[in-house]
């Protein structure tokens, strides 16, 4: 755990959260003092459903039910115990203006928590109860996202100067709430699924040639990466494009950026980037860019199950029907391919031909 420079806005948020925690714990103590079991209501959220009714309200910050926790039910006792232990740790973090990771919290009571997922669940419960985001609790993720390109900003008092060397790789700040004074002369933001593609673009001097910002979450994006991308899109008003593998997992990563994740559906409004567009790779790109059959992989049974489940997601039909058509095409053709398959033409085909043709030709959905 470490201390951290804190803005006046952060101080105000801490003050209000500590007041909420105090009121919540006081109500529990009062119930116990009166010989009553506390009743804790935790709303449930979702960012999508599989209902054929396109008029659903998933992802619009409305709860879709609630869990009613009470000490009278044995199955709830451990969940409440864990939540209160984590809440005590969070209270201390806020009081001392310190930060820690979810993993740090797990190791404070490993015999009680038993598994990291138990801590993760408790943190989500606390966020819902306190109506806040995880970073407001001073619980941070171990950052894994990377950025390069035509941008300069401060995180607190630390300067990130990407503009002086646009193809140099920088870590995405963990404390995104402290990012300020953003300056950019970029034309757009490109989000790529994985580090290997990010490094390919860096080696090809892609940012220098195309005046853009490139970001990767190195697979499924962590919270800082998603928050940082949202901040840039809101602050700079730049178009944002996403490049992922043409497979079910690449598509799932794409939807995580645009629509959020089910695990953190309660915080969808702060994490999703509804402006992001799908640049590729599409199933239809296999024919358009003459990808040889030996570069195409057959979908596994698990791939097909995942595709069938994703096709039912309400936001595809409601918001991006063209995405759904491409996904359906992938299932019908029964094949997938990685972004790197484009290198069959030339090592720099991705940066010199594919991406420019997509962006300049507006072949983006």
Automatic annotation (TrEMBL):
Keyword flag Transferase: no
Reported cofactor(s): Mg(2+)
Superkingdom, natural source: Eukaryota
A Pfam family assignment: TP6A_N
Residues annotated as domain Spo11/DNA topoisomerase VI subunit A N-terminal: 79-139
GO molecular function, one term: ATP binding
The keyword Nucleus appears for this protein: yes
Reaction catalysis annotation: ATP-dependent breakage, passage and rejoining of double-stranded DNA
Active site annotation, chain numbering: 107
Enzyme Commission number: 5.6.2.2
Domain Topoisomerase 6 subunit A/Spo11 TOPRIM per the UniProt entry, residue ranges: 188-359
Alphabetically ordered keywords of this record: DNA-binding, Isomerase, Magnesium, Metal-binding, Nucleus, Topoisomerase
InterPro entries: Meiotic_Spo11, Spo11/TopoVI_A, Spo11/TopoVI_A_N, Spo11/TopoVI_A_sf, TOPRIM_Topo6A/Spo11, WH-like_DNA-bd_sf
Localization in the cell: Nucleus
Gene Ontology biological process terms from the UniProt entry: meiotic DNA double-strand break formation; meiotic DNA double-strand break processing; reciprocal meiotic recombination
TM segment ranges: none
Cellular component aspect of the GO annotation: nuclear chromosome
Family annotation (PANTHER family): MEIOTIC RECOMBINATION PROTEIN SPO11 (PTHR10848), MEIOTIC RECOMBINATION PROTEIN SPO11-1 (PTHR10848:SF3)
Protein family according to the UniProt entry: Belongs to the TOP6A family.
Annotated protein name in UniProt: DNA topoisomerase (ATP-hydrolyzing)
Species assigned in the record: Arachis duranensis
Lineage of origin: Eukaryota, Viridiplantae, Streptophyta, Embryophyta, Tracheophyta
């Amino acid at each position: 755990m470490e201390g951290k420079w804190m803005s006046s806005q952060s101080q105000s948020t801490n003050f209000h959260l500590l007041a909420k925690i105090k009121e919540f714990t006081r109500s529990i103590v009062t119930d116990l003092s009166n010989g009553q079991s506390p009743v804790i209501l935790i709303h449930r959220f979702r960012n999508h459903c599989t209902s054929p009714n396109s008029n659903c309200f998933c992802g619009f910050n409305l709860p879709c039910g609630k869990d009613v926790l009470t000490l009278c039910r044995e199955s709830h006792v451990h969940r409440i115990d864990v939540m209160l232990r984590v809440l005590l740790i969070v209270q201390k973090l806020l009081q001392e203006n310190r930060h820690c990771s979810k993993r740090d919290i797990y190791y404070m009571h490993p015999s009680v928590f038993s598994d990291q997922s138990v801590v993760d669940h408790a943190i989500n419960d606390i966020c819902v109860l306190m109506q806040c985001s995880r970073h407001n609790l001073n619980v941070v993720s171990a950052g894994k996202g990377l950025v390069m390109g035509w941008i300069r900003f401060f995180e607190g008092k630390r300067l990130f100067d990407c503009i002086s060397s646009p193809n140099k790789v920088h870590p995405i700040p963990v404390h995104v709430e402290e990012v300020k004074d953003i300056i950019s002369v970029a034309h757009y933001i490109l989000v790529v699924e994985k580090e290997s593609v990010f490094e390919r673009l860096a080696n090809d001097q892609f940012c220098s040639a195309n005046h853009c910002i490139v970001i990767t979450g190195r697979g499924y994006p962590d919270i800082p990466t998603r928050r940082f991308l949202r901040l840039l899109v809101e602050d700079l008003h730049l178009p944002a494009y996403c490049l992922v593998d043409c497979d079910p997992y690449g598509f799932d990563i794409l939807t995580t950026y645009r629509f959020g994740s089910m695990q953190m559906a309660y915080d969808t409004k702060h994490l999703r980037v509804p402006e992001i567009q799908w640049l590729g790779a599409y199933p239809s790109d296999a024919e358009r860019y003459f990808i040889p059959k030996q570069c195409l992989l057959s979908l596994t049974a698990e791939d097909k199950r995942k595709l069938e489940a994703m096709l039912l997601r309400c936001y595809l039909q409601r918001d991006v029907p063209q995405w759904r058509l491409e996904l359906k095409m992938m299932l019908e053709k029964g094949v997938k391919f990685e972004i790197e398959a484009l290198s069959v033409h030339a090592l720099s085909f991705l940066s010199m031909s594919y991406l420019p043709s997509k962006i300049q030709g507006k072949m983006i959905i």
